[in-house]
Each structure stands twice: as structure tokens, then as C-alpha cells.
Amino acid sequence: xxxxxxxxxxxxxxxxxxxxxxxxxxxxxxxxxxxxxxxxxxxxxxxxxxxxxxxxxxxxxxxxxxxxxxxxxxxxxxxxxxxxxxxxxxxxxxxxxxxxxxxxxxxxxxxxxxxxxxxxxxxxxxxxxxxxxxxxxxxxxxxxxxxxxxxxxxxxxxxxxxxxxxxxxxxxxxxxxxxxxxxxxxxxxxxxxxxxxxxxxxxxxxxxxxxxxxxxxxxxxxxxxxxxxxxxxxxxxxxxxxxxxxxxxxxxxxxxxxxxxxxxxxxxxxxxxxxxxxxxxxxxxxxxxxxxxxxxxxxxxxxxxxxxxxxxxxxxxxxxxxxxxxxxxxxxxxxxxxx
Length: 339
What we know:
Blueprint: E1 5-13, H1 20-31, H2 41-67, H3 74-90, E2 94-102, H4 107-112, E3 119-124, H5 131-145, E4 153-156, H6 164-174, E5 184-190, H7 194-199, H8 224-239, E6 246-251, H9 264-273, E7 278-282, H10 291-307, E8 312-315, H11 323-334
Parallel strand pairs: 1-2, 1-3, 3-4, 5-6, 5-7, 7-8
Helix pairs in contact: 1-2, 3-11, 6-8, 6-11, 9-10
């Protein structure tokens, strides 16, 4: 039980700065990933480099500037804090490294710091599995490890959508607010194109019925949408939220193809038109606050909700580097060790 164990924490990524050229570099690397935009390589390059990034990078830079701090990107700040606190909690037997799938610190840079250890535990920091996130991280990890002469024992954590300690940590964040003051609770997850969810289906089950994602089963156990629904249900059960006061939706749609529904913006509009005035929004696809939570929900969706007649939209703070999250990660890791 004395062997050294390497822990690689990986999040999606962030530009090195909020300047347009750094954002352009980040978006190009991110969107040319074949697991993110899953079309043939040549057409993907034309679409991303010639259309999407060219049109979006300056506007995206302005959005990043609204959340940027003196210390840099919130995502990276929280990531480094988690790395330091987890290292302290685990002790000298472990070596903890942080990487970003896109930009810096790279997965290769982080893995090189962990060479020579007897076991590696890879933890993509996404509670729910998706090919475009966790799958992409594993693909990059395997690409790098295949060049090593000695590959250590490898453990890959694919998801932790209903981990009890993680669920409790989200709930403790929510309990910092007076839940009785809200008309409705919205659970907003990052969206995916429907075709990507269907491609992960090996049982001819996905999107075959209106309620196919409402319960995790053997057939849909790897389904991103089903895992998101399971996370929502677990949080609602812990907080004892009434089903009538809860909505589940997906944000960050890109392009015209059908994505997972219902869409977050349409959900907010419908709630406002039905008379909801005060909303509390959870975003449990993200373990650290970032552009999608702080800007898209905290600023953009709040403005839209008020435009449609709502009065208040609050965001439940993410896990960031809270003690409960560090404890949850530590215990998830300890369960992966050989007995």
C-alpha cells in the first residue's frame, strides 16, 4: 500500500487570456476536435476555421472579459486550488496534477510530471460522461501514453453523476440561499447534438421514446442525458424539491442541428410567461464556475428572464474548491486503489 499514485485532474480548458487572439487559439483547438464537431476532418476545418471561429472569437473575447479576474480564468483558478487542496488531503503517497484538454496546462505536460509512478488515476472533471468531454480526454491521454516505454496501471473514472458526496456538495451550495423564496428551480446542463448521444447508444434505445432518459438502466447507463436526469433527481431528492417546481433543460446550443431538449432559453421564457418570478438555477454539469455558468446563466439568462417578465434569477455556486468537493474527490480516489 506504499506505492506512489498519480492523480490527473482534467477540465475542458480556457484561453490563456481574454484577449481576442488567445480566445481564437482556444476556440480553434477546441472546435476542431473531432469528438466536439463530429464531421469529416476537411469539412470540420473549413467550418471551424473559416466560419465559426472567424465570426465568434471577438465576441467570445468580450464575454470572457466579463468573468476574467486579476488572477486569470476562474476555471483555472479553481482548478489549481482543487489540485493543491487535494494534494494536501491525500498526502505524500500521491502526486496530483492538473491539465486542460485544450490549451494550458496541457495533458501531455501534466502526464510527464507523473511518469515513473506505479498507478495513474485519470479524473475528467465532468460528472456526466460525453464523448465530446470525457471521451476526448481519454483519447488524448491514450495518444500520449502509447509513446511511453513503461505504462503504469491505469484507472479511468468515466463519470460520477450520482456520487452521494458530490450531490451533497451541490445541495450545500444551494442551501446557502433561502429555497422557500423561489417559485421554481431550473437544472441547466451543457447541451449536446442529438446525433452524438445516439452515436453512443449500443442498444437501439436512445431517443426511441419520449421518456427514454428518465431512468438510468443497463441499456442507457452510458447516456449523457440519462446521467444528467439522474443527477437532477438525486439533488431534488436530497433537497426535497417538489417535481412541480423543477425544470430540466440544456444550454449552449451551437448550429442548426437538433440538440438535446428542452432548450434552456425556451424553458426560461415559458416559465416567465407562466408567471414565475424568482428562479434558482443549478448547473451540475460543471464542477467549477466558468463562462457557461457565470456569464451564460448569471448574466445572459438573467437578462433574458427579466425581459420576459421575471424578477430574479440566481445561480447556485458550483463546487469550485469547497471542502465538501475535496472530500468527495479524495474518497472517489481511495476507492480506486487496490486492496
